[in-house]
Design brief:
The complex is a heterodimer of chains A (307) and B (402). Chain A is an alpha/beta fold. Chain A contains 9 helices and 14 strands. In chain A, helix 3 packs parallel to helix 4 and helix 6 runs parallel beside helix 7. The two termini of chain A are 21 Å apart. The model of chain B has no long low-confidence stretch (mean pLDDT 93). The chains are: A alpha/beta (307), B alpha+beta (402). Chains A and B meet through helix 4 and helix 5 of A and helix 4, helix 9 and helix 13 of B.
Chain lengths: 307, 402
């Protein structure tokens, strides 16, 4: 099952002719992702060679989806144009299929552009936006799987742990931690570190709760905003599966942006302490150190009779 | 990116928003001249730094640390007052609730005409991250610490969320005016002002506009007596005019240089430098250093695709901080291969004659080769398999921790 993205999902790449887009499209094909082509305005009709095979390029997302019946798209478009690329993709999926997953990797999109883009996507009920400023989403398979983003594919294995995270490399840590106790992943979702993004923690937790393949979840938060607190409240009311957590930024000073545009404690809000205490109050077992996630997850699985 | 109050007021004025006349000064002589030019009996002498709480701050002599004056914003009734206050402010260190104990040297002054105040309000426009909409916050409790108001009397803060496809609605403005208990005349003035201010927020991609206080005069005019304006750094590419307002002297020079080279760096007060790929992992690395009894000297994210050169720049930036007694490198090789990072670490330590202990933790793509390269070098590099082990090792090596 997994969530939102099946192992054999058909995937388009927006910005496939750019340096980043081409590099990562190649890595996705290498992993086994079912890439069906790409989209770059003005480059329609060209082809791009990935792993020794030619892939078609279209001018617009509408043409690309009509030609390929794609299920998802991944955006590697530079920040000034990424908000527009999200809107184009959401519109095309909505009008042609009534559904689709839009994954935006781009970092540095203006906040107001994201406010407009998320408002547009929210109107298209069958369309889901993941990111921006995120590593993407991966559903590992028996052989390969669907890797839609920039994460290193080889560290993953198909399994029953769902992962949701605001951070990139910290997600990879979480993946490695599940592997250290002999567990694989159902789906890993990077929701991104920007102040305004698409899919949030609660969307992921709800989907994992309803996914028969997933038995437990690792949730990685970081300072800034109140998404973790809201997710904790949702967990306490709705979640039956065990959730293990970690929040980065206990030592972050207030008022300073810590790398991610959204990682800032402002007006005394968004501290790691508040988040961890809300999560623990909701029954989420939190690690103080990411190297302990595996151990805590194992304990939770044992307690739930899953090991 | 933040700007000074005087720059914010110039921006307001050029957009037709109601501000008092004021003059930006960099010396006592300029301040005296400004007083004469403004021709206002009463003026405010305002310290210009990128931090709030100026009025309740304290000025210190940066050389001997002696207290010079209470309050970074003063009301002057004559030329002598202006001279006295401006000479007590300029060149001295202003410590406020927001600057931290190290404070900030005041290099800029704003001399502003006084006005007759009937009531002080609070007004802010920002982005509500959770609802993904611009948010206008207003309160009748102006001139006070708004965080305190939010905590003690949250009902005194009124919030309006603006749907960008509809824009700011008349009905929303009316609601605000009612909530702020404004009469007809002042409602008219408020309505015109809030429309202009909200347009400016959108047009210039602001991250925040905070006016504390917004005042109502005895003539029922609303005046923006304060201006704290911040911009979305991701949107500066389309606002070259705003970028020109950046005052680099208000920022940590190392942070500016790091950002220019594509690194994300924040200086902290500890003594263990860290070099990490990824913002979340970089924060987690700081946290784990602290967990094992050490103190992180910095946040440093070399980014997902760090190369040898960036690793070297990162080392040199960390070592600029004389407090650094040891360095922890924590890399999760994804797209970036650990063997390349290992070579980068070796060439950086050689080029920079590194003389503090170094612990390197490499995991992910090609980590075996990476570790082999490090252990084969004759340099004094310690390796670790987990973040916890790395943190414990570096804390032990610098002789810190409990």
């Amino acid at each position: 099952m997994a969530i939102w993205i099946e192992e054999d999902a058909k995937v388009l790449v927006q910005g496939i002719t750019g340096k980043q887009g081409k590099f990562h499209a190649d890595k996705m094909v290498e992993y086994g992702t079912n890439i069906v082509g790409g989209c770059t305005p003005g480059k329609g009709g060209q082809t791009v060679m990935l792993q020794g095979k030619d892939f078609s390029v279209w001018n617009t997302m509408k043409e690309a989806i009509e030609a390929t019946d794609a299920d998802a798209t991944v955006i590697y478009v530079p920040p000034p144009f990424a908000g527009g690329a999200i809107i184009e993709a959401a519109d095309a999926f909505d009008s042609i299929k009534g559904k689709g997953v839009v994954v935006c990797i781009t970092e540095g999109i203006p906040t107001l552009d994201m406010i407009k883009a998320t408002a547009f996507v929210n109107e298209k009920k069958g369309v889901r936006l993941i990111g921006p400023n995120c590593p993407g989403i991966i559903t590992p398979g028996e052989n390969g799987g669907a890797k839609i983003g920039i994460m290193p594919g080889h560290i993953h294995a198909k399994g029953r742990i769902g992962i949701v995270s605001k951070s990139g490399t910290l997600t990879y840590e979480a993946v490695a931690q599940t592997m250290s106790i002999g567990e694989g992943q159902s789906t890993c979702v990077g929701i991104g570190g920007d102040p305004v993004n698409g899919t949030g923690f609660i969307d992921c937790l709800e989907a994992f709760e309803n996914d028969p393949q997933t038995v437990a979840i690792v949730m990685i938060g970081e300072i800034g905003g109140t998404a973790e607190e809201e997710a904790a409240e949702w967990v306490s009311k709705n979640m039956t599966k065990p959730v293990v957590g970690f929040v980065a930024g206990m030592t972050a000073p207030p008022g300073k942006r810590m790398g991610h545009a959204g990682a800032i404690i402002s007006g005394g809000k968004g501290t790691a302490e508040e988040k961890v205490s809300a999560m623990e109050a909701a029954g989420i077992s939190c690690a103080n150190d990411p190297s302990e996630i595996g151990k805590i997850l194992l304990k939770s699985l044992e307690k739930a009779g899953l090991r | 990116m933040n700007i000074h109050e005087y720059q914010g007021k110039q921006l307001f004025k050029s957009n037709g928003l109601p501000v008092q006349d004021g003059i930006h000064c960099k010396s006592v002589d300029e301040a005296k001249e400004a007083y004469n030019t403004l021709n206002s009996e009463i003026v405010a002498v305002k310290s210009q730094i990128h931090a709030g709480g100026r009025g309740k701050g304290t000025l210190y002599n940066p050389k001997n640390g002696e207290k010079v004056m209470e309050g970074g914003v003063k009301i002057a009734f004559n030329l002598d007052d202006v001279e006295k206050y401006s000479s007590s402010i300029l060149g001295n260190k202003l410590v406020t609730k927001q600057t931290g104990p190290s404070g900030k040297i005041v290099n800029n002054l704003y001399i502003e005409s006084g006005c007759s105040i009937s009531h002080e309000y609070y007004l802010a426009i920002l982005v509500d991250r959770e609802l993904k909409m611009p948010l206008i916050m207003a309160s009748t409790e102006g001139g006070m610490d708004i965080e305190e108001v939010a905590e003690k009397t949250p009902e005194a803060i009124h919030k309006i969320h603006v749907d960008l496809s509809l824009g700011l609605l008349e009905s929303q403005i009316n609601t605000l005016c009612t909530n702020l208990k404004l009469n007809n005349d002042s409602s008219e003035s408020f309505s015109k002002m809030i429309k202009g201010l909200f347009s400016l927020f959108i047009e210039k991609d602001c991250a925040m506009i905070e006016i504390n206080p917004l005042v109502r005069t005895e003539d029922n005019e609303m005046i923006l007596l304060d201006a704290k304006v911040g911009f979305d750094e991701n949107a500066l590419f389309r606002h070259p005019d705003i970028l020109e307002l950046r005052d680099l002297s208000e920022e940590e020079p190392t942070e500016v240089r790091a950002n220019d080279t594509g690194l994300s760096y924040v200086k902290l007060d500890g003594n263990i430098g860290c070099l990490v790929n990824g913002a979340g992992l970089a924060m987690a690395t700081m946290d784990v250093i602290k967990l094992y009894g050490g103190e992180p000297a910095n946040f440093l994210d070399v980014g997902g695709g760090a190369n040898e050169e960036q690793v070297k720049t990162a080392f040199s930036i960390i070592l600029e901080d004389p407090a650094v007694k040891g360095i922890l490198v924590n890399i999760f090789g994804g797209i970036m291969r650990c063997d390349i990072i290992a070579r980068g670490v070796i060439s950086a330590t050689q080029a920079l004659d590194l003389d503090v202990p170094l612990v390197v933790r490499l995991v992910g793509t090609n980590f075996e080769e990476g570790r082999e390269i490090l252990s084969e070098s004759d340099l004094n590099i310690h390796t670790a398999e987990t973040l916890a082990e790395g943190a414990q090792k570096i804390v032990a090596l610098i002789g810190g921790g409990e």
